[in-house]
Design a protein that fits this description.
Largest sheet: 8 strands, parallel
Radius of gyration: 20 Å
Shape: globular
Number of domains: 2
Number of strands: 23
Strand content: 25-35%
Strand order of the largest sheet: 8-11-12-13-14-15-16-17
Helix content: 25-40%
CATH superfamily of the largest domain: Metal-dependent hydrolases
Number of helices: 10
Distance between the termini: 22 Å
CATH architecture of the largest domain: Alpha-Beta Barrel
Structural class: alpha/beta
């Protein structure tokens, strides 16, 4: 028999609607609907959330690890499951497990581990590289960045069976045949680590690249004579962009400007890594950020709920819109209609958090995890 639960006495955020005095009903692994509290059926167990906020589980399309696990350094099902467990406790119920530029053999091993694991909340793999521009490599090793060819793409993806869902590429380093091959394989393409001119970036978007990876970071500058990849992202009517709102990778004023220009086309990622002293990427936590041994800024120490908080408190974006940036907008980019929403029939992936942006409870497909 399906368990029936009603979350009551909270403020519910679902897409463009905010509900007070309503209850969120969960039946089994799905959302049953949002009803006035007095109309909750008697066979639903009522759970008082004490004026907390209720929203869909958060969606992170770029994260490399969590807790003590950097996936690329510990390619195992156990590491993947620990990352999932950590993210669930943070309120993230869907994510793209990301690997930065590496050897093709490591990418292939990651694909094999992912397929073996059959993860519960990971949506697929996001490969950030290796088809990048070395001039904007950031923390990526230059000697592992390669030029794409149809043969290399075939070799990389021949046994992927669709688990590589997303890839960051430099548009100016990709010819039409390579872009077409990736798109035919169903890979969501994102422009990043790029020195693309405005014209090259626009050409990439017209060819099927749909989003931009961590806006402002590791890309051609926004200049008045060539507005580069950032400018193309702003001007192209359908291009969207992810952004790291930690105040370190991008200044909060730049986030504010980006939001004004992109509106609903801007979504949140963490770009988060984990402490690691082995392998290619040796991330060290330095106060509120991660750096490489040479001091290069690498991934963030951000959680997605903390990014939502920063949007509200540091950038001035209303809470409902900040939540959409971490739920509705990434779900829309993926073409998913069963996550990032609390509509009836959607997966009952739910986050409950208080006024201090602390996780109160998390439900995954109707099961209380936290």
């Amino acid at each position: 028999m399906k368990r029936k639960v009603a979350l009551v006495n909270g403020q519910i955020y679902d897409g463009y609607e905010t509900y007070l005095g309503q209850a969120l009903l969960i039946e089994g692994d799905e959302v049953h609907g949002i009803f006035p509290k007095h109309a909750v059926p008697t066979d639903f167990e009522q759970i008082d959330v004490h004026k907390a906020n209720i929203c869909p589980g958060l969606i992170d399309l770029q994260i490399y690890g969590a807790g003590d696990d950097l996936f690329s350094a510990r390619l195992s099902t156990e590491s993947l499951f620990r990352i999932e467990s950590t993210l669930l406790r943070q309120g993230c119920t869907s994510f793209m497990l990301t690997l930065a530029t590496n050897t093709l053999s490591v990418f292939k091993e990651a694909i094999a581990v992912y397929k073996k694991a059959v993860p519960r909340i990971a949506l697929g793999l996001h490969l950030e590289g290796p088809f990048l521009n070395p001039k904007k490599r950031g923390a990526h090793p230059e000697d592992l960045i390669i030029r794409a060819t149809p043969e290399i793409i075939d070799d990389l993806l021949q046994e992927a069976d669709g688990v590589v869902k997303m890839m960051t590429v430099a548009p100016e380093c990709m010819d039409e045949a390579c872009l077409e091959k990736l798109l035919t394989d169903g890979v969501l393409l994102s422009a990043g680590h790029s020195m693309a001119s405005f014209e090259q970036a626009m050409q990439g978007f017209h060819a099927g690249i749909r989003t931009t990876t961590h806006l402002w970071n590791a890309m051609s500058p926004f200049q008045h004579r060539n507005i580069g990849l950032p400018g193309a992202t702003f001007i192209h009517p359908e291009a969207v962009a992810s952004i790291i709102v930690d105040g370190i990778h991008v200044d909060f004023e730049a986030v504010k400007l980006s939001k004004q220009l992109l509106g609903e086309r801007l979504f949140l990622i963490t770009d988060a890594v984990a402490t690691c002293n082995e392998g290619i990427y040796q991330h060290m936590l330095s106060e509120d950020r991660y750096i490489l041994p040479d001091g290069t800024l690498s991934g963030s120490a951000l959680t997605l709920l903390a990014a939502v908080k920063n949007c509200v408190e540091k950038v001035g974006i209303p809470l409902d819109e900040s939540i959409r940036m971490a739920t509705s907008y990434p779900a829309k980019l993926l073409g998913c209609d069963d996550i990032g929403t609390l509509r009836a029939g959607a997966k009952a992936n739910i986050l409950v958090f208080n006024a201090a942006y602390e996780v109160e409870s998390v439900y995954l497909e109707g099961q209380k995890i936290v």
